[in-house]
Write the structure tokens for this entry.
Amino acid sequence: MVWTLPPAESGNLKDYQAARRGFDWGLFHAEFDWSRGGPYNVAAEAVDRHACNGLSDKVALLSVRPDGAVRSLTFEELRESSSRLASGLMRLDISKGDRVLVYMERCPELMISLLGTVKMGAIAGPLFSALGPEAVRDRARDSGAKAIITTPGLLRRLDPVRDELEEVEHLIIVGEAGGGSLSFDLLLASGDPDFRSVDMVPEDPYVIHYTSGSTGKPKGILLGHKAMLQQLMACRYVVDLQAEDVYWCSADPGWVTGTSVGIFGPWYLGATIVSYEGRFDARAWYSLIQRLRVSVWFTAPTALRMLMREGDGLVKEYDLRSLRHVCSAGEPLNPEVVRWGLQTLGQRIHDNWWQTETGAPCISNYRCMALRPGSMGRPVPGVEAAIVDEAGRELPPGREGFLALRPGWPSMMVGIWNGPTRYQEYFQIPGWYRSGDLAYRDEDGYFWFRSRADDVIKTSGERLGPFEVESALIEHPAVQESAVIGKPDPLRGEIVKAFVVLLPGHEPSEELKEDIVQFVRTRLAYYAYPREVEFLDSLPKTRSGKIMRRVLKARERGESPGDLSTLED
Ligand code: AMP
């Protein structure tokens, strides 16, 4: 028997089946100013529309520092500062379609940078501040970024690669500028407060999010301005937002969740968003919900598992009764966490599934629907999802296969920067977009996640490609070659495990392991380092020399490695 939870009492979506049957994306057009002659631009719709239509003094952003201090900005303040930045960027000769990377810890200037960049028609590339110098260099080079907006501390972190950023024309610094960089504040001060958003076409990209595949370096996924339709719909039906909500999405804007349902989507609905500038800390998180009276909360399974581990005694110290809706996405949500949510928070946790490439939630649980803990839910209104085989044939309920979507949903990526071939790879199953996940559907149309079909790793909700980590490892002076896999972990979903073959003259030791770990941590990203390193004499390879990660993966999981006929020896 599957454990089910009855529907919640109220919600924006009243009847799932009826919403799907009568669904028309056109119904959402009227909510946007462009349908009344305004410019087609996500920044104008997220902020200027409200600033000019009676919500100018409404708080749009509550940015909470780790010490608890709160900075708040109204829709009008955001409109004005982003307009100033947009005109300042134009004066720097940055034009429509250029890429501007925003490499910053969470703070109001990060939001202003994203909005200002998008307003003037450029493509914003938010980068998670945990990325190390080599990861930033790779993204700057791949995107051909004209400018990077950053802080003095993070700029110093880029010192080892500064010579390799010669194509970046402008470094704009929030804080003290110097050494050829420009001051963000001065740029704003001299900018035009009434800059009008550049009119874009629906397919024009507004954001580039780098994410990993199982081969090659991370790819720059481009989302188009038309994604606003689905982000608005998802924030209404999945996140269940209303204009009066205080909404906290704990995802960093470096990832798609942080921008699509963390910033733009909620602002289309005129909600107040909370941004926490610190790192995970159970007390700080609970007290933030209590103090700001957060009513809707979007977070991730690893964070929920970490809160669970802190114990129920801690939760009871806080008054969390302001919460009325909770969502989770990014990795499988275990039924135990759903049970904990019910018992300790008194909330159903609504799991939803999507990817950087899908731009917005595509499968979800809704308030009006019975919840089956462990299931990702059912396709959002307006999106068709299925489980298919290689030929695109739909598989019957219960059969595991490729999780696929019918192309054409509004927030579907509009391309991959410099990667038309990589883009095409998503559409090799006739008639379908292939997500790279394996899943099955039950008799009632609920989707259940099984695993990735490829070698992509999800650790603490962060998506990592083995190739990225292997490329960093191989630069270590003692490493000859390596293979990286995701090893199941009860807290983090998966941890990164590296198998390393040493160069002649180097002996395995605990010190060397630690040195290798630190090497990756400081160069690539703080979250991307292998938590386990194992030295091997050789790696399993195919006869043509490709590393067979699945053999290592199966060994680690105590499973059968499958067909070994192509193994080297
Ligand atoms: P990202 O592009 O970083 O959002 O990662 C997308 C991948 O995360 C998906 O392809 C899945 O493997 C995984 N994922 C996202 N949401 C869920 C979910 N609700 N349940 C299970 N896996 C998920």
Summary: The mean pLDDT is 96. Residues 211, 255-256, 329-332, 351-356, 376, 435-437, 449, 452, 458, 463 surround adenosine monophosphate (CB under 6 Å). The chain has two domains: 16-441, 466-557.
